[in-house]
Amino acid sequence: MSAFSVSxxxxxxxxxxxxQASATTPKVSCLSLLEKSxxxxxxxxxxxxxxxxxxxxxxxxxxxxPTAEDEWLTRLPEKNSPLYSHSLPCIEAWLRSLGFYxxxxxxxxxxxxxxxxxxQLSLDVTDLYIRYLKSGPGNLERDVERRFSYALxxxxxxxxxxGGP
Length: 165
What we know:
By secondary structure, the chain is α+β, with helices and mostly antiparallel strands. It has helices at residues 30-38, 68-74, 88-98, 154-162, and strands at residues 3-13, 18-22, 27-29, 50-57, 101-102, 109-113, 118-123, 127-133, 144-149.
């Protein structure tokens, strides 16, 4: 079950002032905390209702909540499916899972730094290009560029890219 660390709990009476309860950052289950704190009976009068605000911070001990990237990775088509059958968010999540990071200057360019080589991957309109950089580790005399059609499977492209120059 997902958990988070509560660093401050602010409880406000519906028609009165705010009280702050400083917590010692306990590890609290999201679901049980919300069920216990926020499920008010319908018959409660207005003066008894509370507004609860959680101010949370990540804790190294707290279990991470699923990210949007994790969701896109679960939506990946089969690895033998052609890359053109993948949505852009799925392709981006897949590239991140391989160790690529997106360029700040050009969102279609992705970079990776492996111990034996560095490369720049470009998502073009018709093809995927990878350029292994001579400026990286290894003994390349010049940049080596390869082009892959989006009709190739994700598995084949992944094996070819990670195989290096």
